[in-house]
Design a protein that fits this description.
The protein is an all-alpha fold. The protein has three helices and no strands. It is elongated, with a radius of gyration of 15 Å.
Length: 93
Amino acid sequence: MLERVGYRGVCTLLGFYLARLLIGSFVGNTSWPERWWLRGPLCGFLGMLPAGIILLGVPGCGGMCTVYNLLSATTIGFVVAGGAWLATARHHA
């Protein structure tokens, strides 16, 4: 479907996966907010927000794809930050 509207599916997927991988970097490099259970979801949400906005312009996808994308990104941020907290027993760096 993406090929018909001028998108290259491989490039689009690569962009989304790279953005998801950056969530861990954002969580590890920030200290605000101080608590991991706030920082993780916030970094996940903000890390994938640009990609979610792009999804609004994809025909046949729209708002629900954006909602699911941001929800999964927020969950990934929570899991990454929770794993870091379990490994270090510290709320921030």
